[in-house]
Amino acid sequence: VQPEDSDKSSAESDSETEVEQVSGYHKLLATLKTSPESESEEEEDESESEEAEESEAEMDSEEFQETGEAEGGEADKNDVPEEEEGSLKYPVSFWQLTATDTAGQMLSQEQADGTDTSCDPRHGVIEEFTDVKHESEFSLETNFMEEESGDCNADKRDSNPFKQHMDKELEEKDIEKMSTLPKTSSQTQWPRLGQVIFSSTLEKQKTLKADKEVDAKQLHLHKPLESTWPKVNKQFLSAVGKPIDSSFTPLQRELFCIMNSYRDLFYPERDALTNGEEIRRAYCLHALNHILKANAQVLSNNAKRRDRKPGTDTDDHRDQGLTRPKVLMIVPFRECALRIVHIFISLLEVNDKKKIDVSNKKRFKGEFGSDPEEKPPNLKRPEDYEAVFAGNIDDHFRIGVAILQKSMRLYAPFYSSDIIIASPLGIRTVIGAEGEKKRDFDFLSSIEILIIDQADIYLMQNWEHVLHLMKHINLLPLDSHGVDFSRVRMLNLNNWSKYYRQTLLFSALQNPQINSIFNKHCFNYIGQVAVRNVPLTGSISHIVVQLPHVFRRLEADSVTSVIDARFQFFIDKVLPEYRDAIMSHTLIYVPSYFDYVRLRNYFKKEDLNFTHICEYTKKAAVCRARRFFLKGEKQFLLFTERFHFYKRYTIKGIRNLIFYELPTYSHFYSEICNMLKATDNGVDATWTCTVLYSKYDAQKLAAVVGIDRTAQMLQSKKNVHLFVTGEN
């Protein structure tokens, strides 16, 4: 379903706040209310094809001035609704929040025209489409294994990882250990992944070793995948030359080695530009391999039950969960879902002559595809931006996929699906909130593999949706949904599903909130594997302008108190140094929207000469604010991280930089600093950069200045002065 205005922007949980603790910021989330005056703002057309602010000449042009003057009034009237100190109001109801205006609206890319628009957000919501026509064809209960479609006998081997994992019988004492005892950890160095940390609560597990060579037979891939995988992965193999293994890149080989052991995995070095697609192919192979084996087991047992003698009762055929969905894949945009489905199709098609039957393929292409001509050709953005926001970037979707032997069914009802692909917002609107009449999360009860890809982007959308999902996964269903309890595994009946669930978490960075998901919401009995490499240099080495950097340390007693401590430190120690008119052209970079609102209210109260830009600001107000700042008519510019994430404009006229908090993405630090070179009339010697940090910012700090400097800075309580010459 695509509710109208369902994915308008939101506020965030502060990136440093411990997820499980209740802070003032989290309390605000419970009081968010719809604001009437903001509704018109949310409908603002954000078409970037009419950008008039990409160069100074354009900013001074008649067209730009007319745009700014036409709106009239101050820029803040086009921003979020007025908030009084201590009581914030927000544009949308809490459960619908997504960090900024929908990525699709902020970047002005509409969906490609499809043959059916019942789910098209441009046409409003009519009804969520599900494929009911092919229900019997894809039913696990009424179908049987075709002899040529899979190697069922091979799956009976004791060394098969799928059988080993799912057939393991835990005892009550094991569950008690995992609930009460701390995990024991060990670390090792792998050739490609680097520092790998293994942790487990149960008896010490054997530490995996990175295999230099991988025989496809050792991986126990389901029959069709052994032949299709090398073809699907061919483009990445040619990029790395001739690897030792003929079907995996070095990165894929090590990642798949962990995935295939059914351990949880956290890999925080996913890069949309370099390794994103090869990682996607690796986890798609693992997910599809799991589904094919699980379904083959069910179909094989169907035949055995059919052929057994009357009156024979056996308990040997427990091969299912309480509900059918086994794999949940969380991805940020429709384009990601499109690529995943295409990989699945390629993996299932043995050759050009043996095409698989894909139901509703045309509809899927229309709703999840994009028209390349819709994107304005004159936009200049960094390569990583183009890679992340490629294709259809709508962030409100969900789709069920059923796979049975040689056929695939798209838009399968959730309770008839093997795989569910969804965005955090898409899954949140189904789960709903407590007290709502229409909500459902039973389909999450028997998820065996959870894949969360590009987790860092959810920090820019709404992290609360991810937390909400983790609270509702692997719970006992409220309804039986027609399940045959004689076929349900005991682990599901005992409500132990979460101890068998494998979680694969991929991110572009390490972050306290992402770490919290892995540390507090993953209970896999086999254990967890996390890649923990430390940055040696940091993004400060990519700054090309000569700029003095002053890192000012603030003290705080706890993670929750650092929010107020930072604000007090800023207004008492930092801001007074910039009040003088000589310190004009000061940009204040604010990662948290809550902090931005707090600062904006304070600046208004103190009657400071400032303007501001956030993810909610109308385009005309953005143009006007940039012009005021460039010409020096406004001394300060408050600037949010999410606006930069979704727009990546070059802000001209900066002479003084203040990072109210270190950026979530380390490369944003060098990117913002390098904006100073766009100031033609600036003098290098007068430029300044001030950064606020605390001991709780260790990960972010290391990503900016490197691990060695971070260690020195955290040991010392003095301010640190660094000078970047542009040659570092």
UniProtKB/TrEMBL annotation:
Keywords: Developmental protein, Nucleus, Phosphoprotein. Residues 95-118 have a biased composition (Polar residues). Residues 539-723 form the UTP25 C-terminal domain. This is U3 small nucleolar RNA-associated protein 25 homolog. GO terms for molecular function: rRNA binding; U3 snoRNA binding. Residues 1-121, 299-320 are annotated as: Disordered. GO terms for cellular component: small-subunit processome. Belongs to the UTP25 family. It holds the Pfam family UTP25_NTPase-like.
